[in-house]
Amino acid sequence: MDESEQRNLGEQDAFDAFMSGDLPTPAASSDSGSARPVEPEAAAVAAEPEVPVAASDGVAEESGHGHESAHASHSQAGHSEAGHSHAGHSHAGHSHGPHRWLDFPLDATGRLLATAAGVALLIALIGTVVLWPSGDAEVPQVLSTVGVDRYTVEVTEVVTGDCYGAPSEIPCDTISFLRDDGVAGVYTQTNSEFTSPVAVGDRVVVADQAGLGVENEFRYYFLDFDRDAPLYWLAVLFAAAVIGLGRSQGVRSLVALLASFVILATFTLPALLDTDSPVLVAIVGSAGVAAVTFYLTHGITHLSTVALLGSLTSLTLTGVLAWIFVPAANLTGLSSEDSLFLIAGNAEINIQGILLAGMIIGTVGVLDDVTITQASAVAEIHAANPAAPSKRIYDSALRVGRDHIGSTTNTLVFAYAGASLPLLMLLTQAQLSLGDALTSETIAIEIVRSLVGGIGLIASVPITTALATWVVRQSAASPAEKAAAAD
Question: Model-level pTM greater than 0.70?
Answer without folding.
Answer: no
